[in-house]
Hints:
The protein is of the alpha/beta class. 16% of the residues lie in helices and 43% in strands. It has a single domain, classed as Nucleoside Triphosphate Pyrophosphohydrolase (Alpha-Beta Complex), CATH 3.90.79. It contains 3 helices and 9 strands.
Amino acid sequence: MTRGPRLAVRAVIRRKDRVLIVNAYPGQVSDLWCLPGGGVERGASLPDNLIREVFEETGLAITVGAPCLVNEFHDPERGFHQVELFFFAAVTGWPIGGDWSDPEGVVNRHRWVTPDELRAVRFKPDSLPAIAFGDVGGLRYDPLERIVG
């Protein structure tokens, strides 16, 4: 029996001219950045999953807005396939104190970046600058792209 794709949610959180990105590779083994979020747990809505994931990874409380991107990626060598649903989100609460750390130890860094700063790092998905800083009208779809680590 073949295992189906993993479902994940991610947040596009803007603050002034910046977007929040995270590095979700334990031990800083990769320089690949993405938006905060993660795997969906059964029995909770997509927005509730996203609120939980963003809080775990950043300490931020958010409200979830409209969906803006469906992205797929895979690693054919490992048989991994993930479908990610991206939503616009807004910060409603900040962590108390400055030393927030992901309790699961996955996210090791986060940064607020401008468009130029984003283009200077490795990131996924490929359409991240367009959804974070572009004029997104409606829901975008990125077909299956190969994961890099």
